[in-house]
Specification:
Blueprint: E1 2-6, H1 14-26, E2 32-36, H2 42-54, H3 58-80, H4 85-105, H5 114-121, H6 124-139, E3 144-147, H7 166-177, E4 185-189, E5 192-194, E6 200-202, H8 208-219, E7 223-228, E8 249-251, H9 252-261, H10 271-276, E9 281-285, E10 294-297, E11 308-322, H11 330-342, E12 347-352, E13 356-362, H12 367-374, E14 378-392, H13 396-403, E15 407-413, E16 417-423
Helix pairs in contact: 1-3, 2-3, 2-5, 3-4, 3-6, 4-6, 7-8
């Protein structure tokens, strides 16, 4: 039994959906669960709807929903031609639900909390895409069924970062999927979860890989395959580094380090459930499905053969000094990390000296709030538009080529990794 996951780029238009169906067809000889993301760029568009709704901009929110709906209906008609009536009806019903949420929360008397609102609106991207793919599979005479993943992956009521309730999820996955998989391909959503009371949550941005891992763990799958628009896991972003190399075999621990450093091919949470049951993770190209991809397993023999370079853009460096000229103590650090946790801002890199503390974080809408709180106790300097580079299994040539004359704002060298926060000249 296998789990396939297809991201937004793989289903961005009718031709890509047809390609996904061809891949599924070649692997339909054994039980298969297919996890699907929202279509390319739709999550970003749904986030715009969230922001407009949060800001009580009803016309702008409705206009954006109109735009998203038109895009999906266009793809639907390309897929089904004159036979799209039933599919259109199902999609229009889903979009009516989005309009209802948006209209209610745009009312002046409704007080919104952003994260809760986010998890009410954004998941419709996945619900629409999986509905479309399942209907197209059925039209091609596949035995497939739609599964609302919110009914099986249960989480705590933490919005935008749902924590999985593993025992309940295990029981529900076994109960609802094992029988279906004897006769049907199961089509379901990535990224989504639900509380035991039926409230929708999400698992964190780009969380569809994690969904595949959760289902694989609960079903004791033989493997998970993530289908991407690249050849597999590369040692660098090919848009940033010419001649980026394919990493054909890496270990779970290496994949985890790459993901934690910011490699976007794999979601950081994906690895642990698979590692615990020794389930291989395969990353293949949906453009060239017959070519070699990357196999991630317990084997560590290949990890150090090639330096890997991970870029994180849109970084902000915060430099803190005590206002009373005292040292930065453990108490200060506890306070700083408490605020980072409260605002859910991740520290990507940090450095402590006797008199100051520097921390590199992602750009974030709550960063100004964090700086205001920090400024009550510290002198705060914020430097924006930076880039962080992590080099796994570095050598001097890899460092020289990556830094390449840029101003180094922060750096560290560990046994297996070197990191640099850079300001482009």
């Amino acid at each position: 039994m296998r789990i396939f996951k297809f991201g937004g780029a793989s289903i961005k238009d009718a031709q890509h959906i047809k390609n996904v169906v061809e891949i599924i067809k070649k692997h339909s000889d054994q039980p298969l669960v297919v996890v699907i993301s929202a279509m390319g760029k739709i999550t970003n568009a749904m986030e715009e709807v969230v922001q407009y709704t949060f800001d009580k901009k009803a016309k702008e929110a409705a206009a954006k929903i109109d735009e998203i709906k038109a895009q999906h209906l266009s793809i639907l008609r390309d897929l089904f031609g004159d036979k799209s009536n039933m599919a259109e009806e199902m999609l229009l019903n889903l979009f009516e639900q989005v309009y209802d949420v948006q209209k209610f929360h745009c009312h002046p008397d409704v007080e919104n909390r952003y994260n809760r609102l986010y998890d009410k609106i954004v998941p419709f991207g996945e619900l629409v895409s999986t509905t479309m793919v399942n209907l197209y599979l059925k039209s091609q005479n596949f035995k497939s069924c739609f599964l609302d993943v919110r009914t099986v992956i249960k989480t705590e009521e933490i919005f935008r970062e749902g924590k999985v309730l593993w025992d309940i999820t295990q029981s529900l996955v076994e109960d609802k999927l094992k029988e279906k998989l004897k006769n049907e391909i199961v089509i379901t959503q990535g990224f989504l979860g639900g509380t035991i009371n039926g409230v929708t949550t999400t698992l964190g941005r780009e969380g569809s890989d994690y969904t595949a891992a959760i289902l694989a763990y609960c079903l004791n799958a033989d493997s998970v395959t993530i289908w991407k628009d690249v050849a597999g896991v590369l040692n660098a972003d090919p848009k940033m580094v010419k001649g980026a190399l394919l990493l054909e075999n890496i270990s779970y621990s290496e994949a985890l380090e790459l993901a934690y450093a910011g490699a976007t091919v794999i979601h950081p949470k994906t690895i642990r459930p698979l590692q615990s049951k020794n389930i291989p993770l395969r990353v293949f190209s949906f453009y060239n499905p017959e070519e070699k991809g990357t196999i991630i397993s317990k084997e560590r023999d290949h990890d150090k053969l090639i330096p890997s370079i991970i870029f994180k853009q849109k970084q902000v460096l915060l430099k803190l000094k005590s206002k009373d000229f005292s040292f930065i103590t453990e108490q200060n650090l506890s306070h700083i990390f408490g605020l980072l946790s409260e605002k859910r801002i991740k520290a990507n890199m940090m450095q402590l000296t006797a008199a100051d503390f520097s921390v590199c974080v992602n750009e974030d809408r709550k960063l100004s709030e964090l700086c205001d709180l920090l400024a009550e106790h510290y002198d705060v300097k914020s430097i924006e538009n930076l880039r962080m580079i992590t080099i796994r299994h570095y050598n001097q040539e890899a460092i020289d080529n990556s830094v390449n004359g840029q101003k180094v704002m922060l750096s560290e060298k560990l046994e297996d990794a070197a990191r640099f926060v850079l300001q482009e000249e």
